[in-house]
Fold each of these.
Amino acid sequence: MPEHTANQILVSPPVTDHDHEIPVVFDSPHSGTIYPDDFGFAVPSAILRMAEDTHVEKLYAAAPGNGATLIAAQFPRSYIDCNRSLLDIDQALLATAWPGPINVSKKTEKGIGLVWRKLDTGEDIYSRRLSVAEVQRRIATCYAPYHKAVRDTINGIHKHYGAVWHINCHSMPAVSGLVAEEGPGKPRADFVLGDRDGSTCSPEFTAFIAATLRGFGYDVKVNDPYKGVELVRAYSDPAAHKHSIQIEVNRKLYMDENSRAPNVNFAPLQNDIARLIKSIGEFARANIPEHGHHHDCDHDHHGHDHGHHHHDHGHGHKH
Ligand SMILES: [Zn+2]
């Protein structure tokens, strides 16, 4: 069963035994649908929900059964966006000056920084300014525990196996909106992979996922228009065998974008993603470095806490 590391985050560790675990973590930061009582937005809920990557965590539901960890935010990305830097603060949204450092990105210039001011469609989300304390609370209750869950899982796997593959999972509207990178009204590919122009994972990993999805019959673009943002940047270090990649799936492939209900293709897509997860597991196991997991890991003489926790085994590997 999944564990809650905090009220707002669901962590589903591997459900297989240790020998079938894979050094892979999936995270879905934008699929949360539980709107906190203190949100205080001023747009219709149906429009606000267009910001969600609705159902993405369900598309990747096969991850724990394949030996990987799946982390999902339960709060909505319009409340606070985990795929932004903590420095990406929109002062125009705040009632008083932010007390810490600010380094705004293009996202904040478009009104979609750490805490969004505007929707994709151009509407203001609030009819008020937010207090500094309110934003700080969103960071403390949602952003910080989410990042801790992702960081601890990545680091735990890396410590155990000497390598980790992290897949940051999103979905995108079928057609680009007003604030989109590529301008409005452009149709999207089935999948867009983002590795920040080759800086967050090995080129082999990006090529492997692209080839696997193309083999299933999908059209795939790489770093066009989405290159990946904070979650693939923050914990990746390909030279140290820490690989992160972003996968965007086109919402038209699995849901009605108006009602947000899964469509008839949901189950087939979920099945294809399960096949992708299995393939990623095989890729990861084949690419664990020589000094990594397969040497000196005496599985019979230490107590694994199967099904409860990831890689906090407390036994020493001689790397
Ligand atoms: Zn997203």
Amino acid sequence: MRMSRSRQHVSSSRKRQAEEEPVVAAVVAKKGTLINVTKQQRKKVAAKLREQQDAYLSVSEATPMSFVASAADGPPPPVEELDVYCPRCRFALSEDQVSEGFEDNVLSYTTQCPECKHRFETSFAFEHPDSGARTRFVWLCSQQTRNQYGLWYDDRKKQLADMPADTVVDTLIVDRPEVAFNAYRYGPVHTKEVRKRIREFLAADYDEDDQVDDDDQVDDDDQVDDDDQVDDE
Ligand SMILES: [Zn+2]
């Protein structure tokens, strides 16, 4: 997979002296500032996110797997509700305002209320197209979506390495439906097929705006063109 190749490239280019030195990923923090982040820090964030997602799923009526699987062969179900009221001042954020509030930083998954500046986690609520049951997924920025995918892939690399790309996506849908759905949302707009769209989104590296040092970027003809990284909706 391109994600793992990219990470290997980052690791080998740094000529690390101590073997226990954590893997370092260059990411964009606060809209353009470069920071280095250890895998341990990323894993900590991932664990918190899983907790949040589990809390949503415990009150869901639909199983996330059946929910996402229902979208795998057709168009995704519509966003039934955007639950984006600021928990502090109750301001109702638009989808654009939620996107603007993200920090595009793999260590942050909160958005910011434009009124009172409070930061909070947000989510999508969906209605199952067949049963009408509802479920909820955390809402992630594009960087965080790729970060979550990268950690998941690294954990299961042995198992996933020889799988066809579409099967990897199917496995992601089962394991981490919220990551799959966020990837679907950020995927290339012109790509109709769900798995392809998820795949193409995740194939691109963390940074979409060429703000990361070139040294840390994999040279790869297969990289998705920036033109394809359109934020839809
Ligand atoms: Zn507020």
